[in-house]
Structures are given as structure tokens and as C-alpha cells.
Design a protein that fits this description.
Blueprint: H1 3-9, H2 17-71, H3 79-103, E1 171-174, E2 179-182, H4 197-208, H5 214-223, H6 230-255, E3 260-272, E4 277-288, E5 298-303, H7 308-315, E6 321-324, H8 331-334, E7 339-342, H9 344-358, H10 361-379, H11 385-412, H12 419-429, H13 431-435, H14 448-464, H15 470-488, H16 493-503
Parallel strand pairs: 3-6, 6-7
Antiparallel strand pairs: 1-2, 3-4, 4-5
Helix pairs in contact: 2-3, 4-16, 6-15, 9-10, 9-12, 10-11, 11-12
Length: 520
């Protein structure tokens, strides 16, 4: 019954003062309640309006970021910028999705397959059994019967955990001979050292694969309750580098037995103590060819400069096909019997830059022609060398010949000195070396494999800032050689290094090949 109805039914003439006061009080309370309900409704409408506005804004922002993420071209940024951009985009997208779910929770639906890779089968598994509080039916009290199990797996991690390995050697005496016998001490890279091979491997991986300076490794160990001084870490790295050097040298010997190599170089800063600043040194990189049989090998060599004499000295009397960019330091090699291979990706990059700048139609056509050549390579990736050679002769060679004729004709109408003419000239200048891969089934189309091997170094040097000396640079190059080769062979670097440091002290030189990080 509402307030108006109550007023109509109430008889003011017959009501006592007490009844009248009680009724007035009740009406006042009802009026206050109605006002509160009205205020609450206004507040709720405002909150709904604010929430709807926020949902609309988040939905629009989410759609915008998705469009940016999935429409971004592969070369809009450098590789390092693109990695950071993708990481940030993915984080933001998930954060916005979580905010939307908080604002407008949807009914929980059955989970759909995500396409996520299964967790590795070789990881140790710790089982947690979850059973009902009672084995009786809550409705009828009858005993429950087990009909199956629902298994959910979650990936877990345990941060670096330091512990002590105690080696207890019982000693036995011969009273007759007055001698003492005990088991031999396990061999170690550093005799009488504090660390196990596992800890040595952890430090090396932190420094050279995760690119952490020694002072950060010192901070990590201290945070976990173990103070390992920087000087101790430096001693370990120095001695381990010396111990691993023969393995890196052996990889260089095996690499130069291949008939096709990739080569590239990247600048690295080196400390110049006399001047109190850094100078430019170079890390030269070499890699085996993926299209030939044999385990992949990656080789790094630290040199104080970029002179072509460094690559000449490294290769020595090696003869074969060498895939490089257009740097002049390699030109002398091609006058000494080495056959030049040119990178199609470098030629493509010139047209990509032009197309990215102003959507040039000629650059777009060049990109489309090159994309067809890469699609052919993708189609033939599982072919044998003989099959790939026939495939290239039938499909790639005609397209390359047509592209060459098109470039020549287009060059006649392009402005001298313009961006288009420079892009075309780069390809025409190197055309014989670009074309060479199509006459074979084992030569690579580009130099991307070696650039991919160098990329972690290029990213890492932003962390370690500089090489402390030429010796430190050479030591880093040797260790990076081993770790990069392990990764190229699908071998987990830490597991390989730990096993190698355990075996290396007692391994004769004649059996060094057994320790190399190569997939047999």
C-alpha cells in the first residue's frame, strides 16, 4: 500500500494524538525510504553509465590495438624494436581483456582448445590429489563410485636454489705398509674450487646467453643468501674460457670443411683503458649452410677492426661459396677463387624502405616478385638437393630472368640518383651473385641464418656495454660459438655445458669431438 492510499484511509477526526503521532512518524520513515530508493536508483544509473562508457572506451581501444598488432608489417621496426613492440602489445591486449571481464563478467563457458603446445613430457611432474570431502552422495547418502579423473597441468618454476654438495672420502690405512688409501677427488676445471660444474655452467649461461654482467650475477647470488664476489666470478669465467677454447677451435676446423658458408660482422665496443673510453671492435660471424647435410655450426671471432684481412686470415685456403652482404672487405676473397653469393633479403630491403616511405608502386611490384621466390623456397624446404635443384630450375629461374629484364627496363625510366634507381642499381650490381642460388639445389637464397645467429649478440651488447679487453672479446667469442652452435642443433645449452664441464678435465684431446654441441 502506498503513502497516498494510507492518507485517504486514515481518519483524522477519530484518531488519538498517540495514533496520529505514530502514523506521522511511519509516514516520515516511508518518505525517507522512498527518497533513499530514489537516490540509490540515480546512483546506480550513474554507475551503469560510467561503466558502459568505460566498457565502450576499452572495447574501442582493444579493437584499435588488435588492428595495429595484426596489421603491422614485419619490417616496420628493427628486429629488436619489433620484439619489444610485440611484447608490449600482447601485454596490453591481455590487460584490457582482463579489465573488460572485470567490468562485464560473462557466463563461464566451456573452455575451447587454444592451440597451446603441450608441456614437455620430460619435465618432472609433482602430483596433487584432490578428493571430495565425503565419499557419500550428498543427496541420497549412497557410496560414490570413481568413474574417471580430470587432469589439469600447470607450469611451475623454482628460482635459483643454492645448495652444497658434500664429498666425503673415507680414508683407510694399512698398518703393515704404513700407507693411507682414499678415493680420488673428482676432476674439476678449477682444482680445489668452490663451485661444481653445474654452478660454473649457470654463471656462464647467465653472462653469455642471458647477457648479465658479473655485478648482476653477484647481486642475484647475494639475494639468494650466497655471497659470491665479483672477483671469484671473474676467475671462474677466465679459467672456463681457457678450458673451452679447444672446443671452439675444433668447431672452426669442422666449419671450414663445409663447401658453403655464411659470413657477417657486427660492431662491438671495446674498452680503451689508455683513453678512458671505448673503441670500436668487431665480432665476425660464420655459419654453415642449412641446405647441406651435417649438423649446423655457428662460429664467432673477435677482432679489433673490420678490415677484410681478418676474414681472409680466418678462412685461410678455404674454397667454396660464401654468402655475404656488399661490404668491400669480402671482395678480395672473390678474386682468389671463392665464389660470391649475394643475399636476396638485402636487395629486398632497399625496395621495402622505398615502399614504406611513399608506397611506391614499382617498389611494391618488386616486393611481390621477391615474395614469389620466397614462397617457392618454402614449398621446397623439405626437398632433397636434387629435387630442389629441379624445382628451382623449373620455377625460380624463369621468375628471376623475368625480374632481371623488368629491372633493366624500369631503370631506363627512373630518375638518376633517386631512391628507386639506387634500389634497382643495388640488385643489378649483384645480380650474378643473387641469381647463382637458382642453378643449384644446395645454395642459400639469403644471409638470414647468420643474421639470426648474430641478433642475440646485438641485443645482449646493450646490457654488457663493452668488451673489457681484446682477450675478453676473444673469450666471449669462443663461448658464444659453443652456445650458439648448441642452440642451432636444438641442444639445451645449460645441460650441454654442465655435462661438458664435468667430462672435460679427464677427456683426452683425441676424443674432444664427443663433447662438441653437435646433433649427430
Amino acid at each position: 500500500m502506498d503513502l497516498a492510499t494510507e492518507l485517504a484511509q486514515f481518519n483524522l477526526h477519530t484518531a488519538t494524538p498517540e495514533a496520529l503521532a505514530a502514523q506521522v512518524s511511519a509516514w516520515a520513515e516511508q518518505a525517507r525510504q522512498l527518497q533513499q530508493d530514489a537516490d540509490l536508483a540515480v546512483k546506480q544509473r550513474h554507475e551503469i553509465q560510467v561503466k558502459d562508457t568505460k566498457i565502450a572506451a576499452l572495447t574501442l581501444e582493444l579493437a584499435y590495438h588488435k588492428r595495429i598488432k595484426f596489421s603491422s608489417t614485419s619490417e616496420a621496426f628493427t628486429a629488436q624494436q619489433r620484439d619489444l613492440f610485440d611484447e608490449t602489445q600482447e601485454t596490453d591486449l591481455n590487460a584490457m581483456q582482463a579489465e573488460l571481464e572485470q567490468l562485464a563478467p560473462a557466463p563461464r563457458a566451456k573452455a575451447k582448445p587454444t592451440g597451446r603446445k603441450p608441456l614437455p613430457a620430460d619435465l618432472p611432474r609433482i602430483e596433487h590429489r584432490h578428493e571430495p570431502e565425503s565419499c557419500s552422495c550428498g543427496a541420497c547418502g549412497q557410496a560414490l563410485v570413481k568413474i574417471g579423473e580430470d587432469v589439469t597441468e600447470q607450469l611451475d618454476v623454482e628460482p635459483a636454489r643454492f645448495f652444497v654438495q658434500r664429498h666425503i672420502r673415507s680414508q683407510y690405512a694399512c698398518r703393515h705398509c704404513e700407507t693411507i688409501t682414499a678415493a680420488a677427488i673428482p676432476a674439476s676445471i678449477i682444482d680445489g674450487g668452490l663451485a661444481t660444474p653445474s654452478l660454473h655452467a649457470w654463471v656462464v649461461i647467465q653472462k653469455y646467453l642471458d647477457h648479465l654482467p658479473l655485478y648482476r650475477i653477484e647481486q642475484i647470488s647475494t639475494r639468494h643468501g650466497v655471497a659470491i664476489s665479483r672477483s671469484t666470478l671473474a676467475e671462474w669465467i677466465g679459467r672456463i674460457g681457457v678450458a673451452l677454447q679447444p672446443l671452439a677451435e675444433r668447431l672452426a676446423e669442422l666449419l671450414k670443411q663445409r663447401s658453403v658458408l655464411h659470413a657477417d660482422e657486427t660492431p662491438v665496443p671495446q674498452l680503451d683503458p689508455g683513453k678512458g673510453k671505448t673503441k670500436r671492435a668487431y665480432l665476425w660471424a660464420y655459419r654453415s649452410n642449412n641446405l647441406e647435410p651435417g649438423a649446423p655450426i655457428v662460429m664467432f671471432e673477435f677482432q679489433p677492426g673490420r678490415s677484410g684481412t681478418h676474414v681472409q686470415t680466418f678462412l685461410g685456403d678455404w674454397q667454396g661459396h660464401l654468402m655475404v652482404d656488399d661490404y668491400g672487405g669480402y671482395k678480395h676473397l672473390f678474386r682468389q677463387g671463392i665464389t660470391e653469393l649475394a643475399c636476396l633479403a638485402h636487395a629486398r630491403r632497399k625496395f621495402f624502405d622505398l615502399h614504406a616511405a611513399n608506397k611506391h608502386p614499382v617498389a611494391e611490384e618488386a616486393l611481390q616478385r621477391i615474395a614469389e621466390l620466397y614462397r617457392l623456397e618454402e614449398d621446397a624446404k623439405n626437398y632433397s638437393i636434387e629435387q630442389r635443384q629441379r624445382w628451382r630450375a623449373e620455377h625460380a629461374k624463369p621468375r628471376l630472368d623475368a625480374m632481371h629484364l623488368w629491372l633493366l627496363q624500369t631503370r631506363k625510366t627512373s630518375a638518376e640518383g633517386g631512391a628507386l634507381s639506387r634500389a634497382i642499381d643495388y640488385g643489378l650490381k649483384r645480380w650474378p651473385a643473387i641469381l647463382r642460388y637458382a642453378d643449384s639445389g644446395h645454395l642459400p637464397i639469403d644471409n638470414n641464418p647468420i643474421e639470426n645467429a648474430i641478433r642475440p649478440i646485438a641485443v645482449g651488447k646493450k646490457n654488457w656495454l663493452f668488451a673489457g679487453s681484446e682477450r675478453a672479446g676473444k673469450r666471449a667469442a669462443a663461448i658464444q660459438t659453443l652456445l650458439a652452435t648448441a642452440k642451432a642443433n636444438g641442444i639445451e645449452p645449460f645441460a650441454w655445458l654442465k655435462d661438458t664441464l664435468e667430462k672435460l678435465p679427464t677427456c683426452p684431446n683425441s676424443r674432444l669431438d664427443e663433447l662438441l654441441p653437435l646433433r649427430i
